Amino acid sequence: MSTIKPFRGLYYTDKSTKSNNLSRVVCPPYDMISNEQKEELKSKNEFNAVNLELPNSYEEAKKTLDEWIKNKILTFDETPSIYIYEISYKVNTETYRLKGIIGGLKLPEKDENYVMTHKNINNAYEIDRIELLDKTKCEFNPICVLYNDDENQIKHMLHTVAKSNYLAKSKQNNLIHKIWKISDPDTITAFEELFNDKTYYIADGHNRFKAACSYREKLRETENISEDHPANFVMTFFVDQNNEALTILPIHRIISNINMFDSDDMLERSSQYFDIIKCKTLKSTRNTMFGLRRENKNAFGIYTDGYYCVLVLKDGSIMKEISNQSDAYNKLDITVLHKLFFEKILNIESEQITYSQSANKACQCVDNGDACFAVLLSATRINEVINISKNRENMPPKSTLFFPKPVSGLIFYSLDQNNEK
Questions:
Q1: CA dist 268 to 228, 264, 279, 305, Å?
Q2: E strands, 119-167, in order
Q3: pTM for the full model?
Q4: Cα 310–321–266 angle (5° rounding)?
Q5: 250-399 CATH
Q6: CB atoms within 10 A of CB 296
Q7: Each residue of 257-279: pLDDT tens digit?
């Protein structure tokens, strides 16, 4: 069974950008946009996709979308297509390219298990995306799933077909995004066959995936929708799980509001389960954590009261005593942190935890007196995420930050079949 489907993409015309460079009209996914950044994006271009991706109201998003289609700011592809999407970036002098396919992913039925998840759904985010989808009948950003391409068949075909002129391009924060259109029926069929019977692991977009499933069920209750109705699919960026350009970044923890906090007491209580390595700087802390990670030891960094240290788990068997989940789950650094350190040792509640992608900013919160201590983490590995997904387990909140992320604005997916005509 092929679970990938072409669709008539909705995309910006030259009328809105005066070229195929979309740098001023694309935006990050909705859950990565701050209020300040939202206003900044709007000021770049009146047609910036943030007006649709993160609108002031759902009604406003529908009105904006309808006007942009009517005024030819956005146009539909003439024929159903799949789209080759590439995100490239440099690290030092080396260029990395994350290349995959954007197409419709068939939403599974309740008894089907070819789409695997690893996160709990945020109900507020899911409801928000359902409401936006219900009002606009459009998806503005693809979810991202991983698949296995051990024989490199899809990789070879992607390299072969993405040689023509690209449909659109954007540069954002040192990342270059390009998209190509593939409308040739034979090529599409070849891709569909290569995706037969694959299992997919959601890397990014759990809330949007669940929202798409919920919206489909809502339609089924009110309409007799056909099997090929667009609501049976979700716009998806399909990526090879072995692509070296794909990585996971760590999300650090900031702990606040502990009455009578005593860092010495915290470390004393921790010493029953952890060896404690003192470090002089953030850099040496990271280097120590990196070395321990290579030795497959569970460790995380602590910054408090002006000094750094690394806590290294002494005996992993303690995790079996406090967690009834799989060995793969219990061996994660993030599980050791939350289950043992936060819950068992310190009795930390979720309300006391905030998150930061920047280790420097997390430590600054401590220096500024806004937090008691910061926890510095190593990144979760992709194979660990896949193993957790296979076990049908959910990782603790903010366990993964996949990089790089697709932007909103290169291609949209309309569920409104009347609008496409």
A1: 61, 6, 17, 15
A2: 138-139, 143-147
A3: 0.93
A4: 35
A5: 3.30.1760.10
A6: 8
A7: 999 999 999 999 999 999 999 99
